[in-house]
Structures are given as C-alpha cells and as structure tokens.
Amino acid sequence: MKIFLCAIIGASFILGACGSSDSNDAPPATTEVEIPTETPAEEVTETPVVVEPTPTAEIVIPTPAPLIHTVQPGNSLSQIAQSYGVPIELLAAENGIEDYNLIQVGQEIVIPLIEDEEE
Q1: Where are the alpha helices (DSSP H) in 1-119?
Q2: Around Cβ 4, how many Cβ atoms within 10 Å?
Q3: Would you identify the CATH topology of the domain 67-111?
Q4: Extents of the domains making up the chain
C-alpha cells in the first residue's frame, strides 16, 4: 500500500510540474540586437617597395708588400734577378740602378712583382 500511495503522489508531482496547456505564461519575447558592422575604409593601393640587399662586408684585396732583398757579399744584380725570376732590366729600373755592377753589400733592392699572364 505504501508503494501505491508513493506512486500516486509521485505522479501528481510530475503532472503538476508539467502544468496545463491553458496557461498564460508565454516565453519572453526575444529582442533583436543590431550588431554594428564596420564600414570598409577606402581601399588603399600601395606601391610595393623593393629593398635591395646591401653587402654586409667589403671584400678587400690587400696589395702585397714589396719583397726586399738585402745584398750579401758575393751577390751580383744578375744573380739576384735570376734567383727571383725577374728580368735584370726590370730589377735595375725598379731600383734606379744604371750600372749593373755597382751594387753594395747591405743595399736593399726592391724585387718587383711580376703578374702572371692569364692564358
């Protein structure tokens, strides 16, 4: 009997919660909310900027230091020219020597650089 009584009370609660269809309770009306939209700005056409890369380091080709030979006892201008592979005329002209036989021990002779010809 208790079960029957509990079932009737439970059913009445359920039916009471559902309510009747004659009720004046209407769901609240929805209000429309206008969402502001951004107006598109004037189209701006930009000219593309081309940036040229700048070199980060300069390539410096050092000028070679002149090669200097100090005349030793027994040296001759032709012997010095031959040992460096330089024509004697060029060696004499580079050092302002007019007489090939007049060089002195301790004299510094600048050896001219001969650039290799490209083949």
Answers
A1: 2-18, 77-84, 88-95
A2: 8
A3: Membrane-bound Lytic Murein Transglycosylase D; Chain A (3.10.350)
A4: 67-111
Closest of 67, 82, 79 to residue 103, by C-alpha? 79
Q: What are the tens digits of pLDDT across the range 56-96?
A: 777 888 888 889 999 999 999 999 999 999 999 999 999 99
The one-letter amino acid code at 89 reads E
Say what the pTM is.
0.46
84: how many CB neighbours lie within 10 A of its CB?
A: 14
What is the SS3 assignment for 2? Answer: helix
- Contact partners, residue 101, CB within 8 Å, separation at least 6: 76, 77
For 79, phi then psi, to 5°, come to -65, -40
Neighbours of 32 (CB within 10 A): 5
Per the listing, tokens 């700005």 go with 41
**109: Cβ contacts below 8 Å, ≥ 6 apart:** 68, 69, 70, 71, 77, 80, 91, 95, 103
